[in-house]
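User: Hi! I have a protein structure encoded as tokens and I'd like to know what sequence might fold into it. I'm fairly new to this, so please keep things simple.
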């Protein structure tokens, strides 16, 4: 079973590239960020912010996440939240969960169980995949891009356009979340053995091709 671990900040293309690579290889796909978003949605829905309550909520919640790259659905306690977790409100609340070490540990254990059960392989993307979740993965990649490029990409994804208003509305959320997450996770600097893939000046197809080339190289090694 092959694990492809991909880290990186918002707007570098992790999700779209990871799904495309998984589909091409016939592998499973795991969006770990969606798991944190789902728990953030649950905390927001129930008005929970206390650290102890957050941990208990994460431990007690029934989280279901699809590993099919063509149908990346997420459900919490039987409720489909695939669309809801992409809202600006949820994006702003993810740190309620991700900043709590005990909550992260619960989700990381779940992620490792999903990875262990995947056949013939899996592409896992998120924030600390190459260093914490799957440090032994044969293919470990840190995707990066210039800040402004990332903000524009996220604006297009969130608002459907890159107008001045959309970019302005996206900048603080995107860069602010990265700054907060960097306090508890490692995803801005490549660890030893992790390949850095800068997507600033390459398009989607080139990004997918670069990842596939690294997978091929690892398989031949």
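Assistant: Happy to help. Inverse folding works backwards from shape to sequence: for each of the 221 positions I chose a residue that suits the local structure. Here it is:
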């Amino acid at each position: 079973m092959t694990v492809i671990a991909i880290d990186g900040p918002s707007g570098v293309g992790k999700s779209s590239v990871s799904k495309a690579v998984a589909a091409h290889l016939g592998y499973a796909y795991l969006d770990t960020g969606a798991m944190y978003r789902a728990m953030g949605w649950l905390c927001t829905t129930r008005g929970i912010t206390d650290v102890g309550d957050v941990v208990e909520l994460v431990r007690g919640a029934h989280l279901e996440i699809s590993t099919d790259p063509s149908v990346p659905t997420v459900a919490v306690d039987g409720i489909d939240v695939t669309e809801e977790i992409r809202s600006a409100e949820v994006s702003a609340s993810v740190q309620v969960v991700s900043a709590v070490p005990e909550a992260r540990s619960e989700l990381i254990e779940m992620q490792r169980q999903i990875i262990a059960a995947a056949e013939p392989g899996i592409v896992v993307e998120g924030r600390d995949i190459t260093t914490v979740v799957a440090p032994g993965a044969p293919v470990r990649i840190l995707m990066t891009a210039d800040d402004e490029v990332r903000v524009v990409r996220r604006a297009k994804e969130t608002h459907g356009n890159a107008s001045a208003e959309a970019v302005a509305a996206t900048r603080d959320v995107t860069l602010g979340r990265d700054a907060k997450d960097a306090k508890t996770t490692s995803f801005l600097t490549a660890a030893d053995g992790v390949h850095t893939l800068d997507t600033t000046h390459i398009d989607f197809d080139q990004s997918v091709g670069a990842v596939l080339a690294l997978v091929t190289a690892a398989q031949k090694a």
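A useful reference point when you look it over: Residues 147 and 175 are 8 Å apart (CA to CA). Feel free to ask if any position seems puzzling.
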